[in-house]
Amino acid sequence: MSARVPGRPSRGVAILVIAIIGAVFVIPLVAMLEFTLRQTSGGYGLGHWVALFDPENARSNRVLVQGIGNSLLLALLTLALVLLLFFPTVVLVHLRFPKLERALDLLTVLPIAIPAIVLVVGFAPIYRIIGSLVGSGIWSLSLAYGVLVLPFAYRAITADLQGMDARVRAEAARSLGAGWGTVLLRVIAPGVRTGLLAASLLTIAIVLGEFTVSSLLNRTTLQVALLQISKSDPFVAVAVSLLSLVGAFIVLLIVSSTGGAPRRRRRSRTRPHAQKGA
Q1: What is the rounded distance in angstroms from the CA atom of residue 195 to the CA atom of residue 8?
Q2: pLDDT for 261
Q3: Under 8 Å CB-to-CB from 9, ≥6 apart: which residues?
Q4: Band of the pLDDT at 274, cuts 50, 70, 90?
Q5: What is the residue-wise DSSP string for 189-220?
Q6: Is the pLDDT of residue 260 over 70?
Q7: CB 86 within 8 A of CB 156
Q8: What is this structure's pTM?
């Protein structure tokens, strides 16, 4: 029997906390499932779920399919912005321009402090210029989403960056002849793996659940499509919302498991050597 570690809750308290948190997530999902099983004539059945996947209703659900496709595309594009643009910029400021970190930190707070309607008013003239130059496709909304996810992605990355002593590692790698690309990909990125994973999870969650900006900029995303279709068939809207929540949980679990596997493999490789040394 293992002794209890001071400062840690007991096993019973931990299970109780997890059960309460799980209930907070599960109870709304169960309520949504119960609502979608209600029949308009009374009782319960699978009529609304069958109607959702019925090919004859494809025309009425066309806006929903378009919204799902647009949201998934925007999630990929915004994630690419975070990993290919934000991450190198944050690392560059941290390593080469540390005096700008305070200004960058303040700048990333602005999307949280400024109301969404004010952001849209500011985005409007920029989108008119973008539309006249390169078009106004759904992809352009990823630029606005990049601004919205910046505060969360920035803090997730910088928390790991400051904890790994990146400047010392980068200087050591540079003294051994490594280029900046090698330092970024093979020295910094593995050290902030958890931060990048958290930034990716937050980016996907924010993009899939965002409504205000896409609605005010007249773009059809998943949340906008759900609002439109709920006016004619609330059962279909709730059913799709339930599927999107479950799908988002699955995506987050896949991304989370992808980030944790290499660490387990590394531990399993180092364990035999440690035993031999002992």
Answers
A1: 25
A2: 47
A3: 17
A4: very low
A5: HHHTHHHHHHHHHHHHHHHHH--HHHHHTT--
A6: no
A7: no
A8: 0.78
